[in-house]
Amino acid sequence: MYPIQNDCNIYISGHKRTSLSEETSLIQHFAKNNGISLDYYSNSDFINKFQNDIANLIGFKEALFFPTGTMAQQILLKVNADKTKNRNFGIHEKSHIYAFEDNAYKHLHRLKEILVGQPNKPYLVEDVKNISEKISTLVIDIPYRELGGIPIPWDELEKIKDYCKQNNILLHADGARLWECASYYKKSYKEICKGLDSIYVSLYKGIGGMAGCFLCGNSSTIKEAKKWKKRHGGKLFQETILIASSAYQFDKRLREMSLYYKKAQEIYNKCSDFKELTFYPEKPLINMFHVHMKITVEEAILMREYFKNKKGIWLFNNVFPSQLKDNKSYFEIYVGDILLDKTISEVNTIFELIAKYIKPLLSE
Amino acid sequence: MYPIQNDCNIYISGHKRTSLSEETSLIQHFAKNNGISLDYYSNSDFINKFQNDIANLIGFKEALFFPTGTMAQQILLKVNADKTKNRNFGIHEKSHIYAFEDNAYKHLHRLKEILVGQPNKPYLVEDVKNISEKISTLVIDIPYRELGGIPIPWDELEKIKDYCKQNNILLHADGARLWECASYYKKSYKEICKGLDSIYVSLYKGIGGMAGCFLCGNSSTIKEAKKWKKRHGGKLFQETILIASSAYQFDKRLREMSLYYKKAQEIYNKCSDFKELTFYPEKPLINMFHVHMKITVEEAILMREYFKNKKGIWLFNNVFPSQLKDNKSYFEIYVGDILLDKTISEVNTIFELIAKYIKPLLSE
Questions:
Q1: Which member of B38, B66, B233 has the closest CB to residue A74?
Q2: Into which family does the record put it (chains A, B) (predicted)?
Q3: Which CATH number fits domain B36-238: 3.40.640.10, 3.40.47.10, 3.50.50.60, 3.40.190.10?
């Protein structure tokens, strides 16, 4: 059960919380200015155009809306499995598909994961070469969120693309946070995606929409994916509102990504000196990072409640066990427009409060 | 591919077409008046309350939002199959699950349908008694849309409920148009649903929302269904907007259902005398009926284009082959607020135009 977090005044991670009233007001403005009609089972000029725009932006033939990435990605794996007559796919154990989707690909499509690489770092081309079984698809994350937002280094990414091509492995990217990676790679989205067979990109997360994503690929892949979208129950009566909730702010968010990135660097430079807190990666590679703590997950949840109730500060949605030496838990910070609009002094004060809360727990 | 129907001035079936701007404006008003927050993976006071309200209204323990009925109903069948260790379910061949979902229940859950009754009428308790194989679940439609909106007669419905209970068959209703049936049965929704183990009800169709539905059942069923909702990729980041698009007009629509019903009766009494058109059922039982024609499906599609281009009238979204003697095709009329606000003379004129268009085709 996720926490209801409406009562706080101060948030840290992600973009500013808005109400349904504020959000519909923004969408209404966009809809009126652009004369947007409602679709009938996804058929609409507005949706077609936005799908095409995104596909063009990242260099794919077609894009197809899905209500969730969970649906889009298992369908992509199923389509590839049917195409290659091979149910195996390679994946990193920190990938969302493997770690957080309750084995949906097994339950619904009888696919089988082959874990690749090591748990605590992105894989390199050598890891891919070491896969012992024949796989239909290799899934790479751009970037690895669960590792603190670490992308595969460019050289390795290029080598993986080449290796997959030479070995008839379909290369799919979980690009839930692709938009966040341009500053790291210093490449266009098209260059980053060149050589991938398919990618899933999110319309909420960094973009700030209400729900949904695009699966991008070639025409035959998207044609098959459409059939499975219907079978999964993903073909909504009207998709327009969800897509519009992303479209109205899409360009602005992409423009701001480099600002979020710079702010993350600045926060690292000025706010990472509390000995109770360990930032990971040591220096943020994109506009997100993890904050590791020497308190347990349970203690961290109590801390969250304390900050919510006593200070009106919402610290994080999720907290996980830490894999770092001497640390026990961590939470994620996504630098979005919340932190962009805070001064470094304000941000520092929040970390200081957290450090102060933790300190006495460690000396007990 | 569904037609894009934005260019017409006159519609017949369903509720009035609105733009995204108009619709978000109405939702915004509702959201502001009710102080509605956005959810985080479905967790919100607003969603919880609306789900509870609907569950209470129709007499179930719990209700769970799904983005589509296709997802909700195959999941219900899967949950029941696991519970009873039996993959067979009984269904009428005109039910949506069997007729229009591309065998999703087979592809994704390896379930097996056992067809019950006769193709062109709702089934009676005798049909259910004649099922030769053991089934986990019996699916009944309340009402049968594809038969022209015909509900199972009350006595038979009660007998089917009793029979299923006595024979340990879980009884599930496709209640996509349950809201339309109160005037026919002259019963409350609770009375209609009493004795069902589960039901799916729509939030768009008669209600006019943008997408989605509720699956209602007991706590253990809904608990299992939640797991499968996530696996299917049905757990949207934010569901609020879709649910609000229905909630803001829900009470009004339920109140108007009896007016739609009366209007359907009136249209039948005053507009069904064109010999080129055959209304089915002979007298509408709910606020919908079929109009059968002696022209083919292909001719009917040409007619739709003609009316769209020459008269700005959108006749129908879909047209199907007719099962009636001497007829070749039919389309559906759902009496919603479009026809409610038209005079009988206006409605008659439209049928007259259709009859006039068809007449010369028949004498060729």
A1: B233
A2: Belongs to the threonine aldolase family.
A3: 3.40.640.10
B212 — contact with chain A (CB < 8 Å)?
A: yes
Q: Which chain A residue is nearest to residue B27, measuring alpha carbons?
A: A24
Residue B70, token pair as written in the block: 């296709």
- In B57-76, the residues whose Cβ lies within 8 Å of chain A are 66-72, 74
Structure tokens at B150: 């015909």
Q: What is the pLDDT along chain B (364 residues), one digit of tens a residue?
A: 455 556 788 999 999 989 999 999 999 999 999 999 999 889 999 999 999 999 999 999 999 999 999 999 999 999 999 999 999 999 999 999 999 999 999 999 999 999 999 999 999 999 999 999 999 999 999 999 999 999 999 999 999 999 999 999 999 999 999 999 999 999 999 999 999 999 999 999 999 999 999 999 999 999 999 999 999 999 999 999 999 999 999 999 999 999 999 999 999 999 989 999 999 998 999 999 999 999 999 999 999 999 999 999 999 999 999 999 999 999 999 999 999 999 999 999 999 999 999 999 998 6
Q: To 5 degrees, how large is the angle CA B16–CA A211–CA B73?
A: 70
- List every span in chain B annotated with CATH 3.90.1150.10: 10-14+251-359
Contact A234 B44 (CB under 8 A): no
Chain B: give the shortest CA distance to residue A295, in Å: 26
CATH topology of domain B10-14+251-359: Aspartate Aminotransferase, domain 1 (3.90.1150)
Asked if the Cβ–Cβ distance from B43 to A3 is below 8 Å, we say yes
Q: Are A350 and A343 in contact (CB under 8 A)?
A: no
Q: How far apart are the first and last CA of chain A?
A: 31
Which residues in B lie closer than 8 A to residue A210 (C-beta atoms)? Answer: 38, 236-238, 240-241
Q: Report the CATH superfamily, name and number, of domain A10-16+251-363.
A: Aspartate Aminotransferase, domain 1 (3.90.1150.10)
When scoring A2, A40, A237 by the number of chain B Cβ atoms within 10 A, the one with the most, hence best to mutate, is A237
In our burial notation (b when 16+ CB lie closer than 10 A, e otherwise), range B46-66 reads bbeebbeebbebbbbebbbbb
Q: Does domain A36-248 have CATH number 3.40.640.10?
A: yes
- In Å, how far is A182's CA from the nearest CA of chain B? 24
Q: Residue B84's CB: how many other CB atoms inside 10 A? A: 17
Q: B245: which chain A residues are within 8 Å (Cβ-Cβ)?
A: 241
